[in-house]
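Subject: Interface between my chains keeps coming out wrong

I've been trying for a while to get a sensible model of this assembly. When I model each chain on its own everything looks fine, but I need the whole thing in one frame so I can look at the contacts. Pasting all components below, labels as-is. Any help appreciated, I'm running out of ideas.
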Amino acid sequence: MIELSGINKIYPTTSGHKVVLDDISFSFPAQTNVGILGRNGSGKSTLLRILAGTEEPDSGTIVRRGTVSWPIGFGGGFNGSLSGEENCRFVARIYGQDVDEVVGFTAEFAELGEYFYMPVKTYSSGMRARLAFGLSMAVEFDAYLVDEVTAVGDSTFQDRCRQAFLDRSERSSVIIVSHSIHTVKSYCERCAVLRNGKLFYFNSVDEAERFYEAA
Amino acid sequence: MRGALTQLQVVHALLLRETKTRFGVNRLGYLWALFEPACLVTMFAAFYSSYGHVASAGTNVVAFISAGILPFSLFRDTAGKCMSGIAANAGLLFYPQVRPLDLVIARAALEFVTCVVVMALVFGGVMLWTGDTNVVSVIETVGGVTLAAALGASFGLLCCGLSVYSNNIEVIIPTLLRPLMWFSAVFHSVDTLPSGYRNIMLYNPLVHAIEMVRDGWFPGYNARHIDPWYPLQWILVMSFMGLTLERAARRRLEHG
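Reply #2:
Try treating it as a single job with all components included. I did that and got this:
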């Protein structure tokens, strides 16, 4: 469960300050997959980073009960000169996980073959994303924070990701930010829409869709 | 927020990672780490002995020079590594577990261990070569080395904090550090200097650290003007300022 209260975030831009998150208070229910819909630049990735703790809000507090993942998606946070395997070792260590277990799981999940042992800088963006996704699945979190899964891999890989989340839905939940209603529909039972720095919550994805499309 | 255990895990993981990226896969980097300071010592020792360097009563020139250059390199390299520590690994701040300070700590630790090993090898080599293995006080020598490293780390931390506010810091500081070698008692004992010049030199905290290394090593070497508390004060003040800046800068760093 993650609880936000009074979260504000402002980015300075050349044309003055842009309010990205405007006094957001919201409690993410435990074991519920929640989608957050927003247009490009609406601040949804910022919100996800704040949920993860990668970024601090300007004001407001966040209470996290249980373990929360890093923002999963683009394959950031890899060192290009180290191999996929070595990057996995690093992440396993900082999260206090069994290194061999994490490496084994990721190798199998990401299906990178020989590339798993080559420097990450030789990867295509799809391979990076697969490594990132496999690695995050190898570490057990209570809440997985996912940024735009639509960008990750082909449909077979997408199915595997969905299955992986399904397998652990007993104890883990997913919070997904996306601009695509399709993505949110296939993962989430609840949905919120981020618009003009405010978060609007809906009990059904369909309601959220109507609100999202109307703007 | 997060426990000491998490921080320990993170620093440990960073250390292993840094070791790998620093020394490379084929481990030639280890050889280079030893080769470079050994060359510097040989070069300066050859220069000063042909020029008739009067180190100090009964002290071998090579030993004297190595006791100056190596702690100085330790300071300079630690400062440099720490300074660029955050910028070089900013991508890792992506993981909420990793804090900017962890990056600096890991780099300082790796640099310290590397330099101490190199120093032990070079000092040992010099002792074997001169046949004089007497050391007056190992504790004082190690203390001097540690002070030099801590001065480097705290100075690097301070520069790290400053570099968040100005991109020029990483260019300016190494340029400013270059002439520092000539004002840190690397080649001459401060005791052999005229008192006016010496009193100015003694404001440099590195002088105290380097002279401590010699004072602890060479029998008959008597550094009368050094004070270990003086560099310690610098370390505390620079660390405090660096940590304060890091805290204030955290939001800017994580934004990027």
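Reply #3:
Confirming on my end. Chain B has a mean pLDDT of 85.
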